[in-house]
Request: fold
Amino acid sequence: MRLACLASLLLVFVSPAVVSAQASSSEADTPPSPLKQLGISGSLRGGYWSSSRDLEEGEHFVGSALWLKAAPKLAPNASLVLEGWVRNQELFHRDATDGVFREGYAAVSLGSLDLRIGRQLIVWGRADRINPTDNLTPRDFTLLVPEDDDQRFGAVAAKATYYLGDVAVTGIWLPYFDPHTIPIQRVPGVTLSERIAHGTLGQWAVRIEQTGKAVDWSLSYFDGLDLFPDIAIDRAGASTLDLVLKHHRIRVFGADAATTVGRYGLRGEAAYALTEDAGGNDPRLKNPFFSLVLGGDRTFLEYLNVNLQYLFHLVFRHRPAREIQDPVERSVAIQEAAIANQVDRVQHGMSLRVSHKWLNETLEAEVGAVLFFTRLDFVVRPKVIYALTDRWKATVGADIFRGDPQSFLGRLRDNSTAYAELRWSF
Amino acid sequence: MRRYVEVIVRFPRLVIALTIVVTALLALQATNLRVVIDPSSNLPQKHPYVVTTEQIEKVFGAKHVIVIALTPKEGDIFAPPVLEKVQRITTALLATPGVAKENLLSLSARRAKNILGTPDGMDVRPLMETTPRTAMEIEALRRALRANPVYLNSIVSRDGRTTAILAEFAEDENGFRGMVEKVRPIVERERDSSVEIVIGGFPVYLAQIERYSQRMAFLFPLAVLIIGLIHYEAFRTLQGMILPLVTALLAVVWGLGIMGLAQVPMDAFNATTPILILAVAAGHAVQILKRYYEEYHRLQASAAHAPRECNRLAVVESLARVGPVMLTAGVVAALGFFSLVVFDIRAIRTFGVFAGLGVLSALALEMTFIPALRSLLPAPGGREGRRERARTVWDRVMETIAAWVTGPRRPLIFVTAGCLAVLCAIGAVRVVVDNSTRAMFFQSLPFQQDDGALNQRLGGTNTFFLLVEGRAEDAIKDPRALRGMDAIQRFLEREPEIGKTVSLADFVKRMNRAMHGDDPAYDRIPDSRELVSQYLLLYSMSGEPGDFDTYVDYGYRSANLWVFLKTDRSAYVQDLIARLHAFLPSQFPDDVRVRVGGSVPQTAALNEVMVHGKILNILQFGGVIFLISSLVFRSPLAGLLVLVPLALAVLANFGLMGLIGIRLDIATALISAMAVGIGADYAIYLIYRLREELARGPSETVAFATALTTAGKAILFVASAVAGGYGVLVFSYGFNVHIRFAILIAAAMLVSSLSALTILPSLIWVFRPRFVFQQAHRRPATRPEVVAALLLALGLSPFPVAAADAPPTAKEIMERNFVATKVVDSVSEATFTLINRNGQQRIRTVFMTTKLQPNGADNMRMTRFLSPPDIKGTVTLLIEHADRDDDIWIYLPALKKVRRLVASNKRDSFVGTDFSYGDVIGHKVDEWEHRLLRQEVLDGQECYVIESLPRTETVKASSGYSKRQNWIRKDNDVMVKAEFWDQAGQPLKTYTARDIRLVDPARRKWQEMRLETSNVQTGHRTIIQFDKFKANQQIKDDFFTTRYMEREP
Reply:
C-alpha cells in the first residue's frame, strides 16, 4: 500500500515530462536537460525527534522522508506544479509510513489575469509567522518537520487574480474542505472522531492587494469552513464519552500592511472572524473574535535580525467555560476554549524572533518565542542550521512549551521536543 | 583625575580582578537580602490610624482575614449539601496550621452562637452544632439566624443565598500566597456544579501583588534587552551596546549586595528599582563612552599614535574630562536618593537607599572597572568607528535643536514650553490622591470578579475598625458607651458603601431581647450597667470564654467595632472618617475615647502622609540638587538652571496623571523622585560640556552646537533607553502598577531630556550666566563655521574635506566607466561560486533581469535562484532609488508569499557573496574624489589607474571603503581591476573582470562576463560567471513587480 503511494507519487512527477518537453523545446537556445525540463527538485531527509507533536506519550522518533517537486513549463504562459512527500515517522514500523500530495495545480497567465486551478497552497498575511488572515489552506501541526511551512498542504481551489497596475484583485473558490490536523490530548474512555462536511460547500474568498508603492497592503474576506475544529460531546454514556470535532462556518474580514522606515521593517495584520455562535451562547462553538499582530524588524550588524511583534486577541461575548454547571460539558468546553485560544476574553502577547548568519550565510541560528501575558504561557524555539555543502544541510533545534495547562500554548507542554535533521537536496 | 586614570590603565588586569572579587563577594551578600512582604511595614508607623490598627490587631486579632463564600446555583444555602460543605471547610480550616482557630467564623464555627432567653436564664448554643438534615432542623437554623441579626451580611447574606467563612491567618513564611494556597485545596475539594465558591479578602490581593511583582523575573531581562538595543541603535557598535549594560548590571548586583551586607530589607514595591539603577548607570556609561569615541577619533585623525596607544590615551582623556562631571552628577543623584531615608514609609526609605547605592556603585565601576576593561579591549576597528560616527536620525534631531536654540526660532521654544506647562498645571490640580489595592489590577481579572461578587452579596471584604476605649476596667459595660457604639453603627449603616457593622452592643441588645421573651421592644441596650454585667455573666455560663475576643478585651476596658466596606478607596474612607469625627463627640461620655484603625484607614493614612510626603520629597530632592549644583558651579543661578528640567518633568508627571486620570498612590508617588534622580544628570552634563566648548571654541554658536551634538546626543540616547527600559513594563498585562510606571517614566524622560536640550540651553543663551560664559564676549559664528563644527561634532574626520580637488580627467574617466556597463535592460544567467579559505566551494546559479529606470541611473533588478536546491525558486526584486532607500521584496517558495524587506546597506554583502550591494549597483561618481595616479598596461590593455576617496564620512561609512583604486581600460572604459581598503585603511578586497564583451553595439555598452572578488582579510572569494547575457530585450516594466516573483520560471 505504502509502496503504491510512493510509486504513484513518482508517476505523477514523471508523466508531465512528455507535455513539458514538447512545449518548451522551441524557445530554448540549447535543449535543456530532462531534469531541468521537468523542473524536478526534492530532498531526502532523516531526523530524530525526542517527542511527537500530537500530545501522545510517544518519545524518540527516528524518521525519514522523501520530498519531491516538479514544475514543468507547459507554455510560456502556462505551467504545472506538483509536489508531495512520503515519509516514515518511525523507522522500521510499516504502519508509520504515509504520504501527502501537497500541491498539484495548473497556472495560466492571460494578459492581466492569472489563473490557478487544482490543489494549491494559498498563504495570506504580512505579519511574521502569526497570520490571523491565513485561513484558506490547512496545516498538519503534528508533522515532525523543522520548518513550520513544511506543515502546510494545499486545498483544491480555483484562484483568479486580475492586475490593475500595482493593485491586484483575487477571487478564490474552494469546493472541498480539508481541515488542520491539530494536537489533541487523548483520554482513556473518551473517543474522538472528526466530522468533515462534504459536497458543495460554497467556500469563497476575495482579496484586494497593492504592492510596489511605499506601503504594501491588502483587504480580504473569507467565507468558508473554519480550519480549526470545535469540540463537542457526541454521546455521553455512563462510563464512556464520545467527542466529535466539527468545523463550522466562519466569515473573516482581514487587513494587512507592510512598509519600511529607514532600517526598520514594519508589519501589521488584523482579522475579525464572525463565527456561527455570534451571540456567544453555545460553549461548543467558537465566539466571534478579533486578532491583531503589530510589529517590526531590524537587522543589526548586517545579519543580526530582531523581529518583535505585539499580539492581541479579543473574544466577543466571552463567557468563561468554568461557569458551565455540568462538569462533563465544562471540561469539554474548557478544552474547546484552550484549542480555540478563547480561554480569556482578552489576550495580550508578544513574539520575538532573533536570527543571525555567519560564515558567508552557511551557519544560521534563530530563536523564536511567543509569550501571552494573561496566563504567561509561552513557547521558545531555538534552531541552528548549518549548510555542510550546497546539498547537505543539518538542522538542530527544539520547541519548548510552558504555561498554565489550560492556556493556548501551555496545553502543548507535552509537545516540547528537541530534534535534529540531516537533509540532502537535489 | 588624569593621574588617577593613568594608574588605572597601567594595572588594568589587577583592577578587573579586584572588581570580579568584590562583585562575587557582594553577590554572595545579596543572597542574604531579606525580602519584606508585610504591607504594614510600609505604612507610616507614627500615624494614629496605624498605631490604632496595631493595637487592635494585638488585642483583638483580625489581621489577615480570608473570606470564602458559597452560593448555591439553585435555591438558598439552607440545604444539607451546602451546609455540609460549610461544615467540612470549617473543619479543614481548623486543622490548617496558621489559622487562628478561636477567631474562625462560619455557620458551623463554635463561635457563632444562637442566644436564647429561657425561663431559667439564658441559653447560648452554637448556631449549627451538627449539620441540619430535616426540614425542622433547617427551619430552626433559619429562626436562629433571624433572631441573631448580627450574623446577617457577615456570614449569611440577607437573601439567604450566600454563606461565608471568615478565617484569620497568622503571618506565613511563604507570604500571602502561602495563606491563599492553604485555602485553595480545601475549597477545590468542595467545588462542583451545584455551588459557586469564591475566595476573597485583603490577603488574596496581597498574594496577587506578590505574584505580579515576580514578573520582574522576565521583564527585567527584557528591559536589559531593550536598553541594549537602544544603545546599539545609538552607538552602532557592540561595545556601545554591551559596556553600559555591564556597568549597569554590576551596579545592580553591588547595590543589592551592599543592602544585604547592611541588612537593609527589600520589599515588593522596590521590584522595579533595578531598572532605575540600570537606567542611571547606563546613562553615565553612555556619556563616558560617547566621549571616549570622540577622543579616540580625534587622536586617530591626528595620526600621531598607533591605534593601541590612541585607545589608551582616549580612555585617559575621556575619563579625565567627563569623570568629574560624572562624579558630580552621580553624587547629586545619589544624595538626592539617600535623602529619602528621612521618610516615615519604609518602601520609600528602601527605595532611596537602594537607588543611591546603585548610583554610587555605578560611579565606582565607571571609575575603575570600565576604564581598565576598555584599555584592554582592542581599539575600535575601522568598521566599528565608522558605525559609531555614521550620521543617524539622532544627529539630525540634535542639529535641528541646535539650530533652534541658537537661531531666531528660540522664542518658539519658550512659547511651546509655556503652553505645555499651563496644560500640565491644569492637569496637576486635578490629580486625585487615592490608594486602592483593587485599583492596582485590571477589573477583568478573575479574582477581581470574585471580589466584586463577594462585595455584592455580603457586607464587604474591606475592614475598618473603631476602637472604643474607657479609662478603667468594665468601662465598656457602661450603657452610655454601648449606646454610643450602637449609634455609630446606625450612622455608618446609612452609608451605601458599608454593608455591615458588628460590635458588643449587638450581642448585648440580643441578650436583652432574649431575656424579655424575644419582645422587639427590648431590642435595645439596657439602662443599667448592672444589668449588662448580669447578661454577660449569664452568657458566660453557657457560652465560651473566647466568643467576644474580637469585640471586647478581657477587662472590658476597650471594645472593637467592626465595619465592613465594599470599597477600599482611601479617598472615600478619609471623607467618611471626617464625617464620623463630627458625629462622634455627642455620642459618648467624656471618659470614652474613640480611635480609627483597620486596613482601609491605614491606606487613608498613607494618603495623608503621601500628600505631605510627596511635596516634602520633591522639595527635599530639589533642595539637595540645588545646593550641590550651586556649590559645584559656584553659582546659585546654576542650581536653579539645573532644577528647570527637573521641575518641568515633575510638572509633566503630575499633569499627565491629572489629565489621563491616574491616581497618586504609593506606586506612582515614587515616579517623581525617580524622574528627578535620573534627570539631574542631564542638565549637569550639558552645562559642563557647554563650559568646555565655550572655553575652547571659536564662537558661541559653534560651542552650543558642539555641546548639543555630543553631550546632548548622549542625553537623548540615555532618555530613550530609560523610557524604553521602563516601557517594557507596559507588557505586564493586568497589573496597573507596572503599566502606569511605563507610561509616566517614559513621559518624564521625554520631558526632562527635551527640556534639558531645549529650554536649558535657550535660557543660558538668553541670560548668559557668568558661570557658563567665563570668558568675555565672543563673536557669533559664521554659517560655514557652524557646519564645520557640526561635522566635527558628528565625528566626521576633516581629512576628506581637506583633500585636494580631483583632476577633472579622472572624474570624466570614472563617469564614462559608470555608464559603460549600464544597459537599457538585460536578461542573464550566471553562476556564483563562493570559495572559502580552505578551497571549499558553494555554487549558486541565478537567472537575472535588469531594466534601467527613466532617470538613467537606477536599475530594477530581479534575481531568481535556480540552484542549489534548498534555495531554488527564491526570488528577489530590488528597485534602486538614488534619493532614498531601495525597495526590496523577496519570494521564498517555502513561505509561498512575497515579503517586503528592509533595504540593505550599500556595504552589506550581496546575497552572501564578497560583492557588496554598492559594488553591484555601482558607486556614484560624485560621491568620491578621483585622482589619476598613472597609466599602465594590464593584461595587454592600456589602463588608467585612478584613486577614489570618499568625499564624506557618510559615503565612507555607507560604502565600507576608505579608498578604492581602479584600473579602467582606455578602449572601452570598463573597470578590469580594483582594490579596496576598509575604513581603518587596511587592504580589504581585490576585484578583477575578464572576458569583456560588447553587448549593445549601438550604445557601446559592455558586460564583464567573469568577475572575481577576493577578500584579503578572510581569504574568502567569489566568482560570478555569466553563462548567458542579452541586452535590449524590450522587457516590460510589469515584469519588475511582485506578480512575477511568484511564477515558476
Summary: Chain A touches chain B through 69 residues (CB under 8 Å).
